[in-house]
Structure formats: structure tokens, C-alpha cells
Amino acid sequence: MYLRDMFALFVMAGILFLLAHPDKRGRLFTFVFVFTVVSGMLFVLIYYGKLIPKVSFRISLPKTLISIFSILAVALIVLLFYTFPHDLIRLTGTRLLVLAVLAAGLGLICAISDCGYNPLAVMTASFLGGGLLYMLVPYLTTIQATPFSLGWSEGSQVYFASLFHSQKLYGQNLPLPVLDPSRYLIQSIPFVFGIRSIFIHRLWQVFLWVGLNAAGAWLIAKKVGSKIAIPTFWLSVFMFLFFFQGPVYYSLFVAVIIVLLGYKRDNPTRTLIAVILASIWTGLSRVNWIPLPALLAACLYLFDEPVDIENWAAYLKKPIVWTVVGVAAAWLSKYAYRFISGEDPEIFDTAFSSPLLWYRMFPNVTYAPGILLGIALVCLPLLILTILFIRKRYKNSVHWLRWLGLGAILAAFLVGGIVVSAKIGGGSNLHNLDAFLVLFVMVSLAILSGHISPESKAEVVPAVNFQKEMKLLLLFAVFVLVSYTFFQASITQSENTQIAETEVAEIQSALNEMKYIPGDVLFITERQLLTTGAIEGVLVVPDYEKVIIMEMAMANNQGYLEAFYQELEENQFKAIILDTLNTSIYDETTGFSDENNSYVSRVVIPILSNYQLAQSWRSGTVNLMVPIGID
After folding, report:
1. For residue range 43-65, what is the model confidence (pLDDT) as tens digits?
2. Among 118, 239, 625, 630, which is 20 to 30 Å from 593 by CA?
3. Per-domain residue ranges for the chain?
4. Cα(445)–Cα(238) distance, rounded to whole angstroms?
5. Nearest residue to 201 (alpha-carbon basis) of 137, 135, 146, 132
6. How far apart are CA 33 and CA 39, in angstroms?
7. What's the pLDDT tens digit per position in 490-548?
8. Contacts of 456 (CB under 8 A, 6+ apart)
């Protein structure tokens, strides 16, 4: 049976290569095509019993040796993927196929040995482990010491985190961040200890991404998946990678962890306190997270509590109270923060006024599969597993009201996430569906583990046994998950720190020469240079930071933009630090065209109408602008 599963993995990897790289016609394409066809034929023959392979010999290998060899082999192959320069290995389809062959080979070793390991489990774990390492490497490559921003908004994130300690860092009381304040609050912890090193802040953010996602995955596995005969570690790895398909922002897991730790079936007061605390946190976060703590607790309640048919009102009382109180706490937290932030209330909640780009629901250049197909691909394997298990094991053992409640909660977050994803600036991945992804995987796991209590106390629903049933579906789910991870991952190129520091020194020198000219220096971009102390002697202008002004441009916030234009016309700034001076307007055949066009027309062109280029660094991605007519 192992060979059947091995050839199934080969077929999946081969088909994906052929679909992903149709332009690579040649010997490689022909080889993969033949490999896939032959693997498919062997799979069919074994599946229908027409071919029954027999192993005529056994080898003796200790478990420890196989474990060490498997870990080293998978780690080395992933390292090879990121370091081997040949174009062949750079193809994502090739990498997946190579990992599949390696994982299958490791399983085959177990199949012909007396080590005691299940060969399918070894193959699946090796493939899943390869996906985990492949995903972690790009995060590790962001831990660099270069002072410049490594991505479009990376420098902005460091700056926003610093605003909770602005007096200590800048000698100014600056307004608190407008967008995702809970994220930047937790990201600001190094500043508590006076740490301004950009290297440490990047290390901390990687720790948050990996650590909080891992903690959330492990807690969910322990809470609702303990009955499944899969080691908690591997179950957690599966969910960990599943969450990164969004990705699920690490700040969301703070609320999830609070509820998971605080929920107690027989202690509704303790649960309510946990819901309130988590709701206060989500109130400082994204608006579509506000009901998450209460509805997460409601899901746990629906898992545990059979329906009291004679008193539905009493049965629904707890989740209703948690929802009302939790949502109220979140909104109070949200408006209390707005009041104390020191920022103009008019620039909060731009999501409600930004245009919706419904074409991004379907395949497009910004997000290739489109939101609808993307979320379907991510969830379909696990959804099929769950539905088949419900039909086989649960049947009529769980009251329809509980299924309706769980379905309604998932549907609410799915629809809400889709709508937010349609917002301009929100459709490049599935991160706006993060709350749905967390609840979806938790509900699916609860069902597959038999964690949902039947109505009759005498009835017990056993967990799915992947050793005996649905093995191919599990393999398919793991394959889709790892494939998505491979196509999503991209490393950050290493920056030459010495060259970067030289350029920073040149920027500092240019600003020093303007020291006695009246006016402020506006850092629209690269504001982290002020945060980390790379640039000194510059007063921070709190307004018009890149991410915020982009939000205002996309929402067409006329009050905010008109104030900006007036300051430009009056040359209020003696200098402006700006990114690429792109003035092109694009159509929908270019990625992020709507975002680009808003920023160009409402920010870049008005700046160029009043300011001119004085100096440029980093191949034109960092520009010093001065008022027109100033030498």
C-alpha cells in the first residue's frame, strides 16, 4: 500500500510541475511528463489490485539513524534549493518534485527495513518538514543590519512601533499609530529596553511571526486535536503552515491564545473574562477581528455542549452574552484608543470609504488565483476530509442547531474577509481572511478528532484514523499545503551593509548642509532611519508617513490630502525624503495598478509640481527633494 501512496505523491508533484511550467518545453518537461504518466499507471494498477509488489528482503536500521538521516537529508535539500545557482533548481515545480522524490525515498527505506516507522508517516512528515524549512528560510533572510527598508512597508512598521515610546526616542510626543495598533504595540517591546538596533527589531519581528503562529497552532492542536493519532508536533506543523497561507498576522494570535487559555466549559465567568480581555485587544486591531474572541468562545461551547432541546434560550444564553459583551468591549477599546491616540479621528477606518475592487475576486495579475479561487484551493482538501468524516461518523449524532451555529460563524468571517479583501490595497493575498482561516482549521480539526460531543452522552465519536482511512486525502491536503508554501515563499536578498551605511552618511551630510534653512525635513519613506538613530538632528514630522498617506490616497480623503497640498505649495518642508519617482499610470494588466495610480496621482505628482530632485541614492529608490528653484 505504501507504493500506491508514493506514486500518488509523484503524480501530484508531476501534474503541478506541468501546470506551473508549461513554457519549459524541452527535455525536462518531457521527462516529467513521462515520469507522471508512468507513476499514474503504476498507481492505478496497485490501487485496483492488478499489481501487488512484494519486498523479498529486509534491512536492519535503527530508528535513531533513520531519524537523523531524514532530518539532515530534508534540511540539505532545502538548503540546496536556496543556494544552488542552476536555473533548473530555481523552478518551483522542480523543487517540489525533488522534495517529493526525497520524501518518498525516505519512506521507502522504512518500508524495506525493520525500524518500526510507518513508511507513509515518514514520507508525509518529510514532505511537510521540507515545507516548514522552506517557509522559514525567507523569514531568516530578513534578519539583516542594513539601515534601509527591506520592503515596501518594513521601515514604516519599525517607525509605527516606536510611536509608543516617542518621547524617549525622539524627544517629542507623537501621535500613536492609526493602523493595526495592537500589532505595533507588541512589536514595540524592544524599545522598552532602549533597543534601537534595526537588526534586533527584525529579529524580534521574525520571532513574533514564527513564535505566536507556532503557539497558536500548538494550543489549537492540544485543545481540540488531541484525540487524533498524529503527534501533536506534526499536527501543529500542519496548522502552522496552514496559517501562513494567509498569512495570519501574529497579533491576531494574541487574542486567540487568550481565549484558548481562558475558556473553561464549566466556568462561564472565566470564559467571559477571557473574551473581554481578548476583545479589548482586537478593538486595537483590524475592524474585522472585533467579533473573533466571542465567536471563538462560542465555537468551543458548540463543540462541548449538547443542545438542550427543551430550553433553547438557556442553551444560547452563554454565547449570546459573550458576543454582546465581547463586541461592546472591543468597540469601547477601539474608540478609547482613538481618543487617546492624539491623531485626527478622520483618518481612522479608511476601510469603510476605500473603493472595492471586485475584479480581484477572480484571477488577476496582483494575486494570480484571485481571492475566491485562492481561498477555495487553500481550504478544499481539509473541507473534503471534514465533510466525508461527518457523513461517516457523525450522521445524526449532533443537533442541527450546533452545525448551523458553526456554519454561520464560519460564513460570517468568510464573507467579511472576502469583502475586506476586495478593498483597494487588500487583494494581494489572503491575509484579510486570517480570522476565517483560524476558525476553519479549528472547526475542521475538532470534527476530525471527534471532539464535538454527540447529543447522547452514551455515544462516542472516535477520531479519524489516517492509518486505515482517507490516507490519500490526507496526503493530498499536505501536498496542497506544501505546494502553496513553495509558490508563496521568496527570500530577501542580502544587502551590503557598508554601502548602505555610506549612503546613510551621504544623506546625513546633505541634511546637515540644510541645517539653517527654515522648515522641516519630511521623511515620507525611510522613517526608520530616524527611529534607529541612523539619521540624527532631524525633527520628526508626524504627518504624511508613506503607509498613512497611501491609505489616504486610496480612500481619497480630501481633507487630509488638501492639507498636504497646501503645505507643499507653501514650501513648508525644506526637504522631502521620497521613494521612487514613478509617474506612470497603469491598467489592470499591471500588479497593484489601482494602488499605484492613487499614490501617483494624489501624492507623487503633487510633490513633483512643487519640489525637485536634489540627490538620489540606492538606484533611485531614496530621493531627496527640495522646493523648486532651490539649488
Report:
1. 999 988 888 877 666 788 888 89
2. 625
3. 2-133, 154-344+356-486, 497-627
4. 11
5. 146
6. 10
7. 899 889 999 999 999 999 999 999 999 999 999 999 999 999 999 999 999 999 999 99
8. 306, 397
